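Universal stress protein: structure tokens wanted.
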Amino acid sequence: MSQMRNEFSGKKRMKILLATDGSKYSKTAINEIANRPFPPKTEVCIVSVYERMSLINSLEPMGVSHEYYAKVDHNAFKGAEKITENAAKILRDKNPALIVTTMVIGGSPKSAILKEAETFGADLIIVGSHGHGVIEGFLLGSVSQAVALHAKCSVEIVRK
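Answer:
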């Protein structure tokens, strides 16, 4: 940790992207950040990504309307928004020196996290690990693994 402090003690602010889905694994990552002594004015962008139904189902299969998918998307957005707000409250309460922002993105979690990390200029991405086994990880696809493999900055995967 002292190496991180020295590197960011100059004019450059440290920028952390925290990806959360509201799971117990994400909450572990949130608490991990909240309890760390980061340099003053460290920026943390909390991101929650939800899968957009309206993009997946652009046709009306079996009579399901576009309005139904729009409502599902809206509810997913509101759920993700609540997740980011709760995470921000924890970080602000436990570590008021952090500059905390939130963002909700509709799309594929793997690509959205990577794209937002680049846009934000993240020095570090922090994600929780769901702890899937090798077979489950292969079949389901691990967001944390994909982020770790393709990110252009450091990635920390927090385990429960």
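Residues 2-158 form a domain with the Rossmann fold fold (CATH 3.40.50.620). Strands lie at 15-19, 43-50, 99-106, 124-128, 154-158.

Cheers.
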